[in-house]
Amino acid sequence: MTRGTATADRGGASRELAGRYRRARASALLLSAFLLAACATTPPSNQTAMDPRNGDGLGGTGISSKLASNPNGDGLGGTGIVGTISGFGSIIVNGLELEFDRSTAVGTDGRPAALDELRIGQVIQGVAHRKDGRISLESLDIQHAVTGPIAAIDTNTQAMTVLGQTVRLNLAGDKAALEAFRTLRVGDVVSVSGLRDGTGAIVATRVDEQNNDGRMIVRGEAGDVSTGHVRIGGLDVPLAADATVSKPTAGERVFVSGRMINGAFVPDVITGGKGLPFDGGVSDVSLEGYVPAAPGPVKIQGATIDGAALPAGVSANDRIVVTGRISAPDQITATAITKIRTVVTIMKAHGSQRPSAVRPDAERPERVVPERPPERPESVTPERPDRPVIERPSGMTGV
Q1: CB–CB of 244/269 below 8 Å?
Q2: For residue 50, is pLDDT > 60?
Q3: Using CA atoms, how far apart are residues 107 and 115, in angstroms rounded to an integer?
Q4: What is the bridge-based pairing of β-strands 253-261 and 216-221?
Q5: How many CB atoms sit inside 10 A of residue 174's CB?
Q6: pTM
Q7: Pick from 180, 200, 197, 199: nearest CA to 188
């Protein structure tokens, strides 16, 4: 799964990350299940879903070359990235091999984090720069779609509700994946990684069962907004003055964190934003998202896409990666639009490499020692009689 990287500093950091990732996976992994999207076929388990051998066109050639062809791809203009981690060595997102070093700023939902917290299936937002043919990450933030207790779960439709958000998983009839999904229970606290499709549902690429520390997160689109509340999916959030960093308006991106107190969600941070989630230093983008269900121009991550048509056969709610340049505020001139598959990983809070299934008793049965045969009687040696003394006739003299 890991690939070598060049330069001593980057190579050491890469080996450190890869080693930590393998150790974390060995101690916690419940299972990984490859899913199907639309008419795609399931890739072999030893390949990532974003792999040119699978016909995705995302192997560091298609998308990477589109970025490289930009006239400012010299490290002067940043590349804004939103997508799902599909591999390591370097960090592979949207088919791009993103280099990193100890200066890369890492966060998770707005809090400081470390590189060894990265996992396959997580969605990240990052800024990178091209230089000497490489794409190096300046910063990245792990972004969960929702973290909270499961309120409802339906194994038949492979869906669940977390903090009022609908979460969909397509387990493609995989028995092991279904068994893992069935281990989740109402009340379990989970962090869900994924992006929202055109219906507003979160399409999960990773589900981590959490040891609840009380902090809950929702990231999505603001629905109804009133003077005192904002609605995100099925969650009604009070716009507390001491928690509102920037008040969202309907249709804008919104991030909320808080806690459940006496059965009600109490926010501690509310942040709204419109358009692309990058500052003015970003000129190129690589954005993952879902084709909107509504007719009209394609919008991904708050930006309108032009310059390239959707690939043949792509329809509403298909998962795509858009590569291109920011041509105007909240507008992208695409150089490539690629349809991709979906990967999901389900993790237990204290999992193991074996699926959570009925296991044989780990204790060894009591050993039954057969009786030893009776000891042989002690051998009695008969007493030997003394030999009689034979008297010999005395010798005869002369005749």
Answers
A1: no
A2: no
A3: 9
A4: antiparallel
A5: 18
A6: 0.71
A7: 180
